[in-house]
Amino acid sequence: MSVSVSDIEETDSEESSAESFDLSEEEFQSQRASQRSRSLSSNAAAEKTKDRKPSLLEAEATKHKKRVEKKLEDIKKNMPPPAEDLSLSRKNSLIADQEFAGKRIEKTEDMPITRICLTGGPCAGKTTALAELTLVLTQMGFRVLQVPEAATILKKGGALITTHKMTFTHAVKFQINLMKL
Amino acid sequence: MDLEEIFIDIAKMSDTHTIILFDRGVMDGSAYTDDNVWQAILDETGWSTIQLRDRRYEAVIHLMTAAEGAEQFYTSENNNARYESPQEARDIDKKLINAWVGHPQFNIVKNTKKGFRTKIDYCLNKVLSLIGMP
């Protein structure tokens, strides 16, 4: 059975072919059923079985028909929708995208984060160490983020950062703001 | 701290292991302020030393000032934020160490006769062992 069905005509032909297949199956089944009942029946019950035979076959045939119909419905469901019915496929892909996005968020939450504070006295090589660490760790495949020094940001903006020259209240206020940054 | 949080939030969106390098940490403030100012900051804000020192970074690496052990290389020319004399630099260095001592993963990188490259390499190896790299 071909999978790619582009128009309704082809779908119809598929259905009919399925039905013809269904019929041959039915014939085969009924033959087998009669064979079975014949071999099972004893001489004494031969007449009784003859009477029951059509109803048994009928029941089996309807069962089989239902089974085939269900199978056909399943095939129809699995078939790609016709060109006009794009809304369904778009909807499906949207759900898939959402599921994928959800998975990605879960995945990133598991990714480790290592916070390393580089400190030290004046002229210690912090800037060089930061550059070197960033280079090597990036080459190793890590993502490296650098948080700039808060005091340098303020100094670059012209803010006085030597709290020793301020009044007590101003020094406290300034340092709190610096730490909040 | 807001800036730090922003960087942490950005790291959370990453799909690879992210290493955040902080150019100084919040405890450095205590080395650059008088003791009574620092105490007033803690009183005013309700921040605790444990919180500020131990909870914000997985590791703290302290690079010692050139004024202590590599005096000939001490210069304040490339320092765009502050100026300190060698003695002031040594004092601040000591205050910074005091500020961070107690952090569960506190490392001090000293100046050796082997030179600056060795200092940087030591720092690099320390970080690599922290993130489980050989």
Structural class of chain B: alpha+beta
Morphology of chain B: globular
Number of domains of chain B: 1
What is the beta-strand fraction of chain B? 5-15%
Q: Tally the helices of chain B: what do you get?
A: 5
How confident is the prediction overall: mean pLDDT of chain A?
Answer: 68
How would you characterize this protein structure?
The complex is a heterodimer of chains A (181) and B (134). Chain A is 69% helix and 7% strand. The longest helix of chain A has 33 residues. Chain A starts with 7 loop residues before the first helix and ends with a helix. Chain A is mainly alpha-helical. Chain A has a domain of 83 residues. Chain B has 134 residues and is α+β, with helices and mostly antiparallel strands. Chain B has one domain. Chain B contains five helices and three strands, in the order H-E-H-H-E-H-E-H. In chain B, strands 2-3 form a two-stranded parallel ribbon. Chain B is globular.
List keywords for this structure.
heterodimer, A: mainly alpha, 7% strand, B: 134 residues, alpha+beta, 5 helices
